[in-house]
Structure prediction request, 242 residues.
Amino acid sequence: MNSDSLKCGREILTAATRMVSFSGAGLSAESGVATFRDAKSGGLWTKHDPMRLASPEGFADDPNLVMDWYAARRRSVAEAEPNSAHQALASQPDMIHITQNVDDLLHRAGVRVEQVIQLHGTIARDHCHARCGFEEAIDLANPPTLRDCPNCGQPLRPGVVWFGESLPAESWQRAEDACAECDALLVIGTSAEVYPAAGLIGLAKSGGARIIIVNTQPSGASHLADVELIGKAGEIVPVLFS
Ligand code: OAD
Prediction:
């Protein structure tokens, strides 16, 4: 970890009046939740075909396969604990947290629900695949198998955004507003390869925000960084706020 860069990152955050975090799977990696694209650490999409497990077409083709795979992910999140990066973020009472993560680790670290924007939804809820409006909370430790919507009889599915689906409009609007208005954006553990989410970093930059990136390696957003800190989120993020 470069101490000059770390000092610069701390100064940016100390001077900021509106701080926003934008996180991806790397934020939860040290909690034991798998990332998507890291071949070295067994990223999910290096082992599984996302179109079979995370698309409306895959669900239509084999809904049991999809629900069973999500059940395994749900159990893995239930067994995980927030790490020191989640806790450091939770120590900032006014910070807004935009995350691509569908886990509940920011919430369990103590971040208030209204301060978390989950752009890709949450695995802690199921909703009706036909969008009749029915949804329900899931016990992540005892996840359900495939079952029908009690309202309309169509299958229930995880409340996450799949490939080919739009982001929830309200969450997206809140995320755009937060990025356009912030003066510091702390980007943690994302490959910044999935759009439109990754476009928020450029939006914040063009609105005048300083960009701090924490990642174990360079990412698709490295060229936007005012400060890039290469290393583990659990080691760097707490120091940024100490
Ligand atoms: P990726 O798996 O694409 O990227 C994870 C990033 O975290 C990589 O750049 C790693 O270098 C970094 N990383 C790994 N461990 C880290 C650690 N301990 N500390 C800091 N950084 C670390 O995950 P995302 O960028 O979140 O979408 O992927 C974006 C979206 O693609 C996901 O939300 C998901 C996926 O398809 C949906 O499911 C809709």
